[in-house]
Design brief:
Blueprint (H helix, E strand, L loop, with lengths): L1 H13 L37 H8 L11 H16 L8 E7 L2 E8 L8 E2 L5 H13 L25 H5 L19 H11 L15 H14 L3 H10 L8 E2 L13 E3 L1 H12 L3 E2 L2 E2 L3 H8 L15 E6 L2 E7 L6 E5 L4 E6 L4 H18 L1
Antiparallel strand pairs: 1-2, 1-11, 3-5, 4-5, 6-7, 8-9, 9-10, 10-11
């Protein structure tokens, strides 16, 4: 009896009201205009009455004898909750977390100064969004991943002429990882990319090495502008934003004519959850086919020609089995961290602004904790 009382008290700590920023077992928010919308309603300032009836509902199987605890799911919530709570300093005292499977919320958590609708810079979490846009153009037959950049951009007809679009997105192009042209508001994306082509040096022979960076994503985006004859902002909205509930998402609000497509997105946690849900669903969101299954599988595959199999297209690959990644992830300089576990069929998102150095280890440890408990 003593152990059961302690267990119930722990559940009460987890299930307290939202004003204490606790995780709350809750179904997805139901939007009448978008009935399977993926948002984290429980992370908002909703409340939960921890009365006796509610506590029994959480702790016990409502359809079975009242003396049989539903141990696994509740224990997971407690485990995840106390991990984040004990590591909150690493997150600058502000973090949100979400774990989902199918159309169900398995766990959510919020503590700190922002909520799921706060619009924040996500840095390199922008990369898979940009890669997804490029994959829609591949599907449309407007370009191919193994096309050479020089086919579309004349300024690359130099020592960079052999670089392919696949190499751009898989970090094996040999281009510099950043440049002084990236965030200039007095340049267009075209001027930025031409400057990179003519004024930077290759770091290695294309396809023979790997260097993580964002410049190559700008080059890929410029190719999209050329084949579509539209601005990147328009292309993104037409192909991803309008289909994934991301209509308000923008790249680089301080220099929109020269968008940093490798790191420039400003968005909310809920907006990014919608994109993540699309990738998790192998290309569909709210019943709409955004990407083909083959395109998502390509993004999750080794595109480095075994130079560095941790790189897909916009995604990091891990937990390998016969070169198949059981988990793919998104990392960012602000600490935003998303992942999809294909083996156990769930996805997760940690949303913070605390920075890479202080969050990378707790983020990875939380991923491992979830993987071991689900």
């Amino acid at each position: 009896m003593k152990h059961l009382i302690l267990f119930m008290l722990a559940v009460m700590a987890v299930s307290c009201d939202g004003q204490k920023n606790s995780p709350i077992p809750h179904e997805l928010e139901q939007d009448p205009l978008n009935p399977i919308d993926t948002v984290c309603k429980a992370c908002k300032d909703s409340t939960f009455a921890a009365g006796e009836a509610d506590l029994r509902y959480v702790v016990f199987d409502k359809n079975g004898p009242m003396n049989i605890p539903v141990v696994t799911s509740v224990r997971n919530k407690i485990t995840f909750y106390y991990y984040l709570k004990s590591n909150i300093a690493n997150y600058g005292n502000s973090v949100m977390a979400y774990i989902g499977r199918g159309d169900s919320t398995l766990f959510c958590y919020r503590q700190g100064e922002y909520n799921t609708d706060s619009r924040l810079p996500i840095m390199s979490a922008s990369k898979p969004v940009t890669a997804a846009v490029i994959m829609t153009l591949v599907e449309a037959g407007k370009l191919a991943l193994d096309d050479k950049v020089s086919k579309y951009i004349p300024s690359f007809n130099n020592e960079k002429k052999e670089i392919t679009i696949r190499q751009l997105l898989a970090h094996t192009s040999g281009l510099v990882y950043e440049s002084r042209f990236d965030s200039r508001s007095d340049l267009t994306l075209q001027q930025n990319i031409d400057s990179i082509a003519l004024r930077t040096q290759l770091q290695f022979v294309p396809g023979k090495g790997a260097l993580y960076g964002s410049v190559s994503y700008g080059v890929a985006s410029r190719i999209a502008e050329i084949v579509e004859k539209k601005s990147w902002a328009t292309i993104f909205q037409e192909r991803i934003g309008s289909k994934c509930g991301m209509e308000d998402v923008i790249y680089s609000p301080d220099h929109p004519a020269n968008p940093a497509t490798g790191y420039g997105i400003m968005c909310s946690m809920n907006e990014y959850l919608r994109f993540l849900t699309m990738i998790y669903n192998k290309g569909t969101y709210n019943g709409v086919r955004v990407l083909s299954v083959a395109s998502v599988e390509t993004m999750e595959a080794d595109n480095s020609n075994r130079v560095d199999p941790t790189y897909g297209l916009g995604l990091w690959r891990s937990e390998f089995q016969n070169n198949t990644a059981k988990e793919v992830a998104v990392l960012s300089a602000r600490g935003v961290h998303a992942w999809i576990n294909r083996e156990k069929n769930y996805f997760g998102l940690l949303f913070t602004q605390a920075g890479f150095d202080t969050t990378i280890q707790p983020n990875l440890a939380f991923r491992k904790l979830v993987r071991e408990n689900l």
